[in-house]
């Protein structure tokens, strides 16, 4: 799993950037907010990444901040929200704005993003409301819009891997939870994904 890239911004497009790391160019999809935060071409950059694995491709999505990646992981766990829609939401709303909108049940705010209709916005709000805790009101642990779950741990990576392989969010979540309980907190990501895949396939 590639979790972070540190290199030089080679070029940027409408929805992606190419990061040169030691002479190797990594193509990463990104929200408009992340692309704006990267700075000018040729400058040093660091991006947090999420690897999306499917049967016919492996893609990287990049984020200027860790909390944006955490929200991306939560969003793609909602039925009907793919990577493009998740990035559209993160382009329209900062993590803090998104946190407040979900916590308050403000589907209209979420529906501001391109490709998000009222029904999908309502589903996003309903499915994520119980996962993120109360809306942040000041700078603090959640003041930057971070989520209150351990989204940066191996369980989130394993969940993302299973969903990218086609398992439904509920199936993937149950399988990862069962694997995590069996293996314990010291489990490696590889072991967690392998066991979760076996449990999900039963």
From TrEMBL:
Alphabetized, the UniProt keywords read: ATP-binding, Cytoplasm, DNA damage, DNA recombination, DNA repair, DNA-binding, Helicase, Hydrolase, Nucleotide-binding
The terms under GO molecular function for this entry are: ATP binding; four-way junction DNA binding; four-way junction helicase activity
Q: Where is this region: Domain III?
A: 157-202
Q: Which domain of life is it from?
A: Bacteria
Q: Does the keyword Iron apply?
A: no
Stretch list, region Domain I:
1-64
Annotated Helix-hairpin-helix DNA-binding motif class domain ranges read 73-92, 108-127
A Pfam family per the record: RuvA_N
The family database entries (Gene3D superfamilies) matched by this protein are listed as: 5' to 3' exonuclease, C-terminal subdomain, DNA helicase RuvA subunit, C-terminal domain, Nucleic acid-binding proteins
Compartments where found: Cytoplasm
The GO cellular component terms are:
cytoplasm; Holliday junction helicase complex; Holliday junction resolvase complex
Q: Does the keyword Amino-acid biosynthesis apply?
A: no
Coarse class of the protein's main subcellular location = cytoplasm
Q: Name one GO biological process term.
A: DNA repair
Name the NCBIfam families on file.
ruvA
What the record says about family reads:
Belongs to the RuvA family.
The domain-related comment in the record is: Has three domains with a flexible linker between the domains II and III and assumes an 'L' shape. Domain III is highly mobile and contacts RuvB.
Outline the subunit composition: Homotetramer. Forms an RuvA(8)-RuvB(12)-Holliday junction (HJ) complex. HJ DNA is sandwiched between 2 RuvA tetramers; dsDNA enters through RuvA and exits via RuvB. An RuvB hexamer assembles on each DNA strand where it exits the tetramer. Each RuvB hexamer is contacted by two RuvA subunits (via domain III) on 2 adjacent RuvB subunits; this complex drives branch migration. In the full resolvosome a probable DNA-RuvA(4)-RuvB(12)-RuvC(2) complex forms which resolves the HJ.
Protein task? The RuvA-RuvB-RuvC complex processes Holliday junction (HJ) DNA during genetic recombination and DNA repair, while the RuvA-RuvB complex plays an important role in the rescue of blocked DNA replication forks via replication fork reversal (RFR). RuvA specifically binds to HJ cruciform DNA, conferring on it an open structure. The RuvB hexamer acts as an ATP-dependent pump, pulling dsDNA into and through the RuvAB complex. HJ branch migration allows RuvC to scan DNA until it finds its consensus sequence, where it cleaves and resolves the cruciform DNA.
The protein in question is named Holliday junction branch migration complex subunit RuvA
- Which organism's genome codes for this protein? Sphingobium wenxiniae (strain DSM 21828 / CGMCC 1.7748 / JZ-1)
| Gene responsible for this protein | ruvA
């Amino acid at each position: 799993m590639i979790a972070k890239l540190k290199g030089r911004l080679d070029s940027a497009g409408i929805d992606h950037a190419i990061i040169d790391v030691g002479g190797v160019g990594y193509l990463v999809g990104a929200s408009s907010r992340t692309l704006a935060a990267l700075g000018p071409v040729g400058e040093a950059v660091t991006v947090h990444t999420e690897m999306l694995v499917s049967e016919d491709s492996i893609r990287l999505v990049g984020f200027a901040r860790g909390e944006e990646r955490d929200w991306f992981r939560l969003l793609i766990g909602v039925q009907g929200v793919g990577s493009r829609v998740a990035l559209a939401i993160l382009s329209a709303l900062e993590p803090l704005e998104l946190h407040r909108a979900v916590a308050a049940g403000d589907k209209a705010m979420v529906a501001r993003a391109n490709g998000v209709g009222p029904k999908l916005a309502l589903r996003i709000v309903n499915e994520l409301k119980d996962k993120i805790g109360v809306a942040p009101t000041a700078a603090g642990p959640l003041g930057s819009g971070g989520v209150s779950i351990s989204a940066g741990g191996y369980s989130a990576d394993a969940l993302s891997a299973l969903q990218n392989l086609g398992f439904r969010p509920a199936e993937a979540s149950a399988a990862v939870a069962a694997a995590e309980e069996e293996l314990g907190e010291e489990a490696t990501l590889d072991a967690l994904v392998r066991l979760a895949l076996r449990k999900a396939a039963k």
